[in-house]
Design brief:
The protein has about 250 residues and is of the alpha/beta class. The protein has one domain: Undecaprenyl pyrophosphate synthetase (3-Layer(aba) Sandwich). Helices cover about 45% and strands about 15% of the residues. Strands 3-4-2-1-5-6 form a six-stranded parallel β-sheet, with helices on both faces. Helix 5 links the parallel strand 3 and strand 4. The chain is globular. About 35% of the residues are buried. The chain binds 3-methylbut-3-enyl trihydrogen diphosphate (2 copies) and magnesium ion (MG). The site of one 3-methylbut-3-enyl trihydrogen diphosphate has 11 residues, from strand 2.
C-alpha cells in the first residue's frame, strides 16, 4: 500500500538542474503485447507512440539531447516478420516527422550502420538528417538504428587505423576526445542519464563508450506504459545522485 502510494506521488523535479543528455533503451514492447494477448508488433506500434510523446515532453521541459535505442545489431536475430514490422514503423515515423520536425524544433540523427536497411528507409533517414542540418532544433534526437556499442568502437578503431596507415594521423595522437570523434556520436555530449524500462538490468550493447559515467536508472514499467510521470521519476532519481567522476 505504502509502495503504491509512493509510486503515485508526483516526483519532485528541479527543472533548473536537468540532465543535458538522456538516453533510453526502449524495451518491453513484446511483453506488453503478450500480456494483452496481442501480437508483438502491436507492442512495437504502442512503443513508437510513446517515443513520440516522450520526445515532445523532453523538448518541452528543455532537455537538449535524447538518444533512443530503436534496433540493435543483435535484433536481426528476431523473426523476419517482426523485423519488417519494426522497419515499417520506423518508415512511418520518419514520413510523419519530415513534415513537422522543423515546426516542432526537433532535429533527428541516426547512430548505427544504415547500410543493411532497405533503400526506402535509408533514403528517409538521409532526408531527415538533411532537413536537420537546416535549422537549430531545441531538442536533438539520436535514433540508434542497427546500432551496437561494440560495433561502433570497432569501426572507430578501424577508421583511426586507416587514417594512420594513410599518414593522416599518428598513433600517439589518439586520446579520449579524438577517439570520441570517430564514433557515430561524434559531437554529441556523453549521456548523463541512461534509462532502461522493462526490468532488465543490462546495457545490451548500448552506448558502451559514452556511458562510462552515466547515471543508470531502471524501472519495471514496460516501454509502452512509460509516461511523462515515469520520466519525471527518473529525472528526480538522477538529481538525488552524487556524481563524483572518481573524485571525492
Ligand atoms: C524493445 O522491445 C524493442 C526492440 C528491441 C526493437 P522488445 O521487443 O525487446 O520487448 P520485450 O523485451 O520482448 O518485451
Ligand atoms: C535492447 O533490447 C535493444 C533495443 C531496445 C532496441 P533487447 O530486448 O534487444 O535486449 P535483450 O535481448 O533483452 O538484451
Ligand atoms: Mg527486449
Amino acid at each position: 500500500m505504502v509502495f503504491l502510494k509512493s509510486r503515485q506521488t508526483q516526483a519532485q523535479v528541479d527543472w533548473k538542474r536537468l540532465p543535458r543528455h538522456v538516453a533510453i533503451i526502449m524495451d518491453g514492447n513484446g511483453r506488453w503485447a503478450k500480456r494483452r494477448g496481442l501480437p508483438r508488433t502491436a507492442g512495437h506500434a504502442a512503443g513508437a507512440e510513446v517515443f513520440r510523446n516522450i520526445a515532445t515532453y523532453c523538448k518541452d521541459i528543455g532537455i537538449e539531447y535524447l538518444t533512443v535505442y530503436a534496433f540493435s545489431t543483435e535484433n536481426w536475430k528476431r523473426p523476419e516478420a517482426e523485423v519488417s514490422a519494426i522497419m515499417g514503423l520506423l518508415e512511418q515515423y520518419l514520413l510523419e516527422s519530415i513534415e513537422k520536425m522543423e515546426r516542432d524544433q526537433i532535429t533527428l540523427h541516426f547512430l548505427g550502420d544504415l547500410s543493411p536497411l532497405s533503400p526506402k528507409l535509408r533514403e528517409l533517414c538521409d532526408r531527415t538528417q538533411n532537413i536537420s542540418t537546416h535549422y537549430e532544433g531545441k531538442l536533438h534526437v539520436n535514433v540508434c538504428l542497427n546500432y551496437g556499442g561494440r560495433d561502433e568502437i570497432l569501426r572507430a578503431a578501424r577508421a583511426f587505423a586507416a587514417d594512420c596507415a594513410a599518414g593522416k594521423k599518428k598513433p600517439e595522437e589518439l586520446d579520449e576526445a579524438a577517439f570520441s570523434g570517430y564514433l557515430y556520436s561524434a559531437g554529441v555530449p556523453d549521456p548523463d542519464l541512461v534509462i532502461r524500462p522493462s526490468g532488465e538490468l543490462r546495457l545490451s550493447n548500448f552506448l558502451l563508450w559514452q556511458s562510462a559515467y552515466a547515471e543508470l536508472y531502471y524501472t519495471d514499467v514496460l516501454w509502452p506504459d512509460f509516461s511523462k510521470e515515469e520520466l519525471d521519476r527518473a529525472l528526480a532519481a538522477y538529481q538525488s545522485r552524487s556524481r563524483r567522476f572518481g573524485g571525492v
